[in-house]
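Table S4 entry, NAD kinase.
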Amino acid sequence: MKNFLIITNYYKDSEARLTNHIKEYIEKKGGSCSTFFSNGETPGEAAPHREDIPENTQGVLVLGGDGTLIRAAAALVKSRLPLIGVNLGTLGYLCELEEKDVFAAVDKLMKDDYMVEERMMLGGYGIKGGEILPADIALNDVVIHRTGALSVVNLIVYVNGEYLNTFRADGIIISTPTGSTGYNMSAGGPIVDPKAQMMLITPINDHNLSSKSIVISADEEVTVELGKRRSQKDEMVEVSFDGDSKVRLEVGDRFVVRRAEDTAKICKLSSESFLEILRRKMSAYT
């Protein structure tokens, strides 16, 4: 790998100190490097448009945090470029590198001393008043959550068209294995190896003492319907892909989630196992 694109969260390297240093280092070693500054929050600003990426680009260095990497992965999914994250934030499970590691990592990348992991993604679309809404894609999770009044909503969940359960909760998280260490973990869901092939269904603050996460095959299709809770039928929910709100649903509307056809390509340089990384990351913040 000789030709790189650097995507930098502007707020984490506002003066481009690290970005320019890496670019100069790559070019000094005979490679090429283009740069793009993201605001780290808006999906439309997560990565350059496909036509603006040099054709010889072979890999992407993402400087920021897990959120910056997740949004870049979704934006670049059709390019099939492998990405590796450099953590400039706080706790980053997805970003393998820290700032102190980046130049040694560039050396390994330029020697083709790396592996590429294919990470499962989720695709989803809404059905509102019988109309199918545009689909979107997520690397971490699709979250359906209440909006407006501070009250629970009724979320009726079906798997492959078969009724599973009704959750009276603040919302529900449908997560990939990669996303298991994100919102899913905060909501009490299980942590799984990011290379696994499965979906995790985790309610958010379910009004039920025995509520648990449900793990299903990656080949299943999950449909969530917003059910009626009171006679006014004025409940509303929002659907977020990797933390970015996309769709608002009303009572009777449905949202369908299944495994996406595309996968995210994540570079891995270290032989450190997922469990070792997990233990190290968690112990650093306990």
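The CA atoms of residues 23 and 33 lie 6 Å apart.
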